[in-house]
Amino acid sequence: MMAPLLILSLVLFTHLTGYLCKVTTVGDLAVLEGGSVEIPCHYEPQYASYVKYWCQGRDRGLCTSLARSDAPGRPTAEDKVVLFDDPVQQVFTVTMTNMQEADSGWYWCGVEVGGFWSADDAVSLYINVLHGLSVVNRKVRGEEGTSLTVQCLYSQRLRQNEKKWCRSGDWSSCLVTNSDGLNEDQALEIRDDHTKAFNVTFRRLVSTDTGWYWCASGQQQVAVYIQVTQQVAVHITLPATTGPGVIVTSSPEDNQSVHLPPRQIANGAENQRPLWEYSLMACGVLFIVQLLILLPWKIMDRYMKLKKRRTEEELEDRLSDPPFGDDWQNTSIIILKDPSQKMLGF
């Protein structure tokens, strides 16, 4: 009885571990021949210290290892496959360069778990290496009167071929690169970098430029749609005292205008003083009132202090000469601060 339960527990533990500990990545990818591709492989926090690997093959158990996080030495620019692990972000990134059609196939992002009961945690994706042309955006929009650049990407085998930019349905309109990879006219310029892309630049878009075009090289071609929108115009009419309001035109496409009523000006409003002038005047009046109140009080206070001081000086002079001759030793003297009181000697 214990043996079946033990086996069942181990099976459940294995499946639960596989459910909780997952490696994820992007879906299937397509890349032009001669180009490069970067694949992010995300993992759970508990795998931060584990070995990560990138291998090629339909069967994970038999896939060929191309890069490992524990590989000796540091990656160089000459390496076709580079693996970089970032435990902080919990992702390792694989970069493959100079892709060829033979590189098409199944690949695996893997974490080396090891152990008898635990298989490696890994996820697969298919990379398809193509020969031909492509564009980043199949539909490009530009504003009338501005310039616009379209980038056409090509595979390695088309590097030495001439490049063309043609209007769909009119092959006589094709602008073809010369031996230097350049060509231009009054409206267009085509420039090839001889590595992986050629750029087509409209110098000044007009409404008739709207339509389908082709990036072409050899037998390969890819369609691009150019949409030219009308330039946004804003017309502002400053209102006079009795003139019309402001008219704002948002776009010639919708032909709608917003009319704002003119600002009403009250009678005599043009002669009104600003608020700060009234505040300054009020402060000035208040200062003058305070000065008129404090100045008389200050003068009176100073006069009383001088009068008191003179009285005290007179009293001291009188006491300096005793009025009772030699019998002053038996005399009591009382000094009163109030000058209105009389001084008596005993």
Automatic annotation (TrEMBL):
Superkingdom, taxonomy of origin: Eukaryota
Ranges where the Ig-like domain occurs: 4-124, 144-225
PROSITE patterns tied to this protein: IG_LIKE
Protein localization: Membrane
Keyword field contains RNA-binding: no
Keyword check for Hydrolase: no
Name of the protein this chain belongs to: Ig-like domain-containing protein
InterPro entries (UniProt xref): CD300_family_receptors (IPR050671), Ig-like_dom (IPR007110), Ig-like_dom_sf (IPR036179), Ig-like_fold (IPR013783), Ig_sub (IPR003599), Ig_V-set (IPR013106)
Pfam families found in the cross-reference section: V-set
CC annotations in GO: membrane
Assigned keywords, A-Z: Membrane, Signal, Transmembrane, Transmembrane helix
Annotated transmembrane regions: 278-300
Cleaved signal peptide residues: 1-18
Main location: membrane
